[in-house]
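Chapter review: from sequence to fold.
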Amino acid sequence: MYYPASELVLNTKNQVYHLGISPETIAEKIILVGDQDRVQLVSNFFDSIHHQSQHREFVVHTGTYKGKEISVISSGIGTDNIDIVLNEVDALFNIDLATRTEKKIKKALEFVRIGTCGILQKTIPLHSYILSTHAFGLDNIGHFYQIPFDEKEIEMAEIIKTHLKLPSAVVPYFVAASESLVHKLISEKTYQGITITSSGFYGPQGRELRAKNTVPEMNNQIETFDFEGLKICNFEMESSAIFALSNVLGHTASTICLGVANRPNKEFSTGFEKEMNELIQYVLDRI
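The token string follows.
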């Protein structure tokens, strides 16, 4: 397969266009964060750093932690940026940028997103670790790729949409995280369940300022959802695209977030630097 210049876009240094990096600068274990400043928080734990770069909102640090090479990349907010990051990182490993042809031997990568989220269950306290076993995507990224959703994922997308009474125009999808990574990250410190990946921060997450919401009772419906013991734990804005693209590209992916708001209890944490640093070290030690 040959990828012309209009499809695989490279800069004048033969680097992937948006990330602005080359294959030798990136590790096979990758931590994704939304906030650019959080990249430094993660790399502060590294024993050594041998690459640092920034292009647009994409900050990349690569180094070693306890003998393992790890990269941390800021994606910014939203699944549209995840579409860029996942595709360009995959290209760095699985496409020969010089010849623009697909490599015969593929690399399977490991993506872990560390983020913040809004908690959707009253019983989960602020600063809890929310581990996503599945994502319910309210974005549209998954619909533009031939994702091999299984029958259970297709069924669950419809079950949750019906329970939440979403408008007919909303076409969600449901996708599982990688079991192997969930197994690495799970512990007595984590709460596990479904994550809703929203296409926005306000209306799509049930917030209502001056613009009225079309699904005003959505968050109440979320709290009552329980399918065979599987509950909806949190809102965030990236995981569905990470899981879906990793699935189709042959990578593993998971998300673990620090709960900084409890929506049913109307609580928000204004200071969580200590707790975020503890979560970062928790993830690094487990991957």
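Two observations follow directly from the output. The chain has seven helices and 14 strands. The domain at 1-107 is CATH 3.40.50.1580 (Rossmann fold).
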